[in-house]
Amino acid sequence: MNKTKILIIEDDAEISRLTSLYLQAEGFDTHVITDGSKAIDGIKSYQPDLMILDLMLPGLSGIEVCKQSRLFYSEPILVLTACDDDVSEVSLLKLGADDFLTKPLKPLVLVARIEALLRRVKSQQPPKQVKHSKLKIDENKQLAFFNNKQLALTGAELELLILLEQNIGIPVSREGCSQAFRGIEHDFNDRSIDMRICGLRKKLNDDQMPYKIITTVRNKGYMLLHG
Asked: Cα 109 from chain centroid?
């Protein structure tokens, strides 16, 4: 499992060394930059999951690093300020910072803030849409490909296939499948869903049991298998 990468931009050698050692002991991967003029290139090359940024830097100030990095960097930025720093919390947030800590740093507080920021980012990320590795659907062009070969599908079959892929690994009931047909109400005595599934299976060369692409789940409906 890849470690969470934290970039420390701090010109005080002792603070950056101790911070790096502590975070490594907590299971993070760290990289240190001590010169503000090297910060932007360092962010682009290291691509950290979170950045710890001191405001007082040689070469390029932490304020400028924060402003410039926000043009391309969207992960959390935790700013370090001196106790007598007159930069307000509002100003830091407007610059693009997500949180700030005053020096001297307390290791336990630092880790707690980092973990809170990472949790916030994770909670805001949409769930990754799982796709079938051999199936490619272009909804805009209304085209579907399997094993890089275009499928000759009817409009109803395409909509049904889209629905199954949106729920890959999860059974979709006949009622749910009927939603793929615009304005057509499903009748339990009507085998139109089954007929269209049968048609899909033939075009996917999956019309022989045991089905390897679209399977029947007893009393639940149909399911597109992972592949």
From this structure: 27
Angle subtended at Cα 13 by Cα 11 and Cα 18, rounded to the nearest 5 degrees: 120
Q: How many CA atoms lie within 13 A of 152 on its CB side?
A: 2
pLDDT tens profile 61-108: 999 999 999 999 999 999 998 765 556 666 777 788 999 898 889 999
Confirm if 48 and 75 have CB atoms less than 8 A apart: yes
Query: Quick check: is 130 in a domain?
Result: no
- At position 40, the amino acid (one-letter code) is I
Looking at the structure of the chain, the number of domains it has is 2
In angstroms, rounded to a whole number, what is the distance separating the alpha carbons of residues 170 and 17?
49
Which CATH number belongs to the domain containing residue 50 in this structure?
3.40.50.2300
CB-based contacts of 12: which residues, under 8 Å, 6+ apart? 54
Q: What letter would DSSP give residue 38?
A: G
Domain residue limits at 156 = 135-224
pLDDT of residue 179: 63
Residues 120 and 39 in one domain: yes
Q: Look at residue 129 and tell me if it is in a domain.
A: no
Residue 63 burial (C-beta neighbours within 10 Å; 0-12, 13-18, 19+):
buried
- On whether both 55 and 115 belong to a single domain, the answer is yes
- Spell out a b/e string for 144-173, using b for 16 or more CB atoms within 10 Å of the CB, else e: bebeeeebebeebbbbbbebbbebbeebbe
Backbone angles phi, psi at 73, to 5 degrees: -110, 125
